[in-house]
């Protein structure tokens, strides 16, 4: 079902999937990458709330490196964005 949403371009529906396991992780990550692409294309990463949501999304997808890369691209990092990045490191450790 998740792959069907992704293949039909319904990425927001794919994000509402109840759980992500080893079988559905790749399509779920593809949806998240599409959302990141949409945000980048429309220059929304400068909005700290949107940027915070993306950093949190990557952190929850076990992609600490992607979360950090996006964090580094955020022009105006507020307290919430910093907290999300710190929380990601606390959850997965600094060795990720």
How would you explain this protein's 3D organization?
The protein is an all-alpha fold and 96 residues long. Helix content is 68%, strand content 0%. It has 6 helices and no strands. Helix 4 packs antiparallel against helix 5, helix 4 (48-60) packs parallel to helix 6 and helix 5 (64-73) runs antiparallel to helix 6 (79-92).
Give the SSE map.
Layout: H1 2-7, H2 11-15, H3 25-41, H4 48-60, H5 64-73, H6 79-92
Summarize the structure.
This protein has 96 residues and is an all-alpha fold.
Number of strands: 0
- N/C terminus separation: 30 Å
Low-confidence stretches: 20-25
H-E string? HHHHHH
The helix count comes to 6
Shape annotation: globular
What fraction, in percent, of the residue positions are helical? 55-70%
Structural class: mainly alpha
* Subunit organisation of the chains: single chain
What integer value in Å does the Rg equal?
Answer: 13 Å
Strand content: under 5%
Biggest beta-sheet profile? none
- Overall pLDDT confidence: 73
Main features:
96 residues, mainly alpha, 6 helices, globular
């Amino acid at each position: 079902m998740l792959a069907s949403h992704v293949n039909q371009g319904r990425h927001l529906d794919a994000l509402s999937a109840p759980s992500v396991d080893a079988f559905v992780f790749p399509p779920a990550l593809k949806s998240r990458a599409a959302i990141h692409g949409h945000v980048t294309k429309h220059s929304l990463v400068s909005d700290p709330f949107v940027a915070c949501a993306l950093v949190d999304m990557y952190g929850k997808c076990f992609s600490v490196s992607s979360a950090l890369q996006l964090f580094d691209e955020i022009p105006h990092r507020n307290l919430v964005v910093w907290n999300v990045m710190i929380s990601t490191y606390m959850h997965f450790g600094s060795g990720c």
